[in-house]
Amino acid sequence: MSIDINLTRAQFDEVMVPNYAPSAIIPVRGDGSRVWDQTGKEFIDFAGGIAVNCLGHCHPALVGALTTQGEKLWHLSNVMTNEPALELATKLVNATFADRVYFANSGAEANEAALKLARRFALETVGAEKDQIIAFDKAFHGRTFFTVSVGGQAAYSDGFGPKPESISHVPFNDIAAFEAIISDKTCAVMMEPLQGEGGIIDADPEFLIAVRALCDKHNALLIFDEVQTGVGRTGELYAYMSTDVVPDILTTAKALGGGFPIAAMLTTATIAAHLKIGTHGSTYGGNPLACAVGNAVLDVVNTPEVLAGVKQREQLFRDGLNKINEKYDVFSEVRGKGLLIGGVMNEKFAGRSRDFLVASAQEGLMCLIAGANVVRFTPSLVIPHADIEEGLVRFERAVAKVFAA
């Protein structure tokens, strides 16, 4: 069969599996917080590749790291270790509660490793009967069959046959419901400290404290999925750092590579000891190219200037969105933390978040949604103030368009 290699959106339908429905826009170049498509149209990027492009597009430190490492060593497999992986693991250990690091390629893979480790830890320290995993409604932990089953959204996990067993879900921020289900059979609790895909819902401080205490009472491991909240997104290197709770296992991905695929699972030496040689692995995990970029990301992001700048930019977003809302009354609230922000549709615009996304693109702005009722913003952590201002101007035009429709 001959294939037309004219690279258009129509070509997607000819050669790609139809599990995505991408827009007609095909970006070809990015610089900082600006992106240009095939036609030369410019967009301001408030989406950040879904909280991935933490330093925008083509940041000099990341380009330099990738170029330098690309001329040295690309891949070895885990038959051997490599210097960039050792350096990045050391930085992560020094910056967090963790003693040990396992590298993977995506958030789903890091979460898969965390769940397998939790099950293995419980099996070897207690017995096969301690296998229950508790997670929360509206959670999202990845698209492998294990992680999508642990995630609390049936629409993503139904239709693929029998699911992994001994997984329970309870409402987020409901202490009573959680206390009623946890027991000595619980091996792990997995949660996002700030739910992303579920609608930008922050964990109540007292809920976090109760979860930690009940995990300790029942000898269950607490896993924090910080795939979206990690690496500066909330104004801390990791979101747990602004709470009174420390997890037993933490997963990180997305922003860790600033756009280059990499993920990591962090844990203590005692827990890590149960992933013995041969029990888990990854062909590309700890790849020198990915780790070189990850090192550059951490060197830039994990600084007082950048982390404080995230909180300053959060306020600019909140002020701008509230000002727009005073004029058009489309949001019931603006919520989130740092540069993981959600505008929640009020009753008049319920279910119409995608209308705002589409209108924004028409006005030269890239943003996201988190379900049918939340417009989500996850821009670069170092987005220039001028780009925030101009992006909000474009977003206001989009709001006005939807408002008038």
UniProtKB/TrEMBL annotation:
It catalyses: N(2)-acetyl-L-ornithine + 2-oxoglutarate = N-acetyl-L-glutamate 5-semialdehyde + L-glutamate. GO terms for molecular function: transaminase activity. The keyword Nuclease does not apply. It is an enzyme of class 2 (transferase). Pyridoxal 5'-phosphate binds at G107, A108, F140, D225, E226, V227, Q228, T283. Transmembrane segments: none annotated. The modification N6-(pyridoxal phosphate)lysine is found at K254. This is Acetylornithine aminotransferase. N(2)-acetyl-L-ornithine binds at R143, S282. Gene3D superfamilies: Aspartate Aminotransferase, domain 1, Type I PLP-dependent aspartate aminotransferase-like (Major domain). Homodimer. HAMAP family: ArgD_aminotrans_3 (MF_01107). It comes from the Bacteria. Keywords: Amino-acid biosynthesis, Aminotransferase, Arginine biosynthesis, Cytoplasm, Pyridoxal phosphate, Transferase. Its EC number is 2.6.1.11. SUPFAM superfamilies: PLP-dependent transferases. Its cofactor is pyridoxal 5'-phosphate. Binds 1 pyridoxal phosphate per subunit. PANTHER family: AMINOTRANSFERASE CLASS III, SUCCINYLORNITHINE TRANSAMINASE. It is found in: Cytoplasm. May also have succinyldiaminopimelate aminotransferase activity, thus carrying out the corresponding step in lysine biosynthesis. Belongs to the class-III pyridoxal-phosphate-dependent aminotransferase family. ArgD subfamily. Pathway: Amino-acid biosynthesis; L-arginine biosynthesis; N(2)-acetyl-L-ornithine from L-glutamate: step 4/4. InterPro entries: Ac/SucOrn_transaminase_bac, AcOrn/SuccOrn_fam, Aminotrans_3, Aminotrans_3_PPA_site, Class-III_PLP-dep_AT, PyrdxlP-dep_Trfase, PyrdxlP-dep_Trfase_major, PyrdxlP-dep_Trfase_small. The keyword Cytoplasm applies.
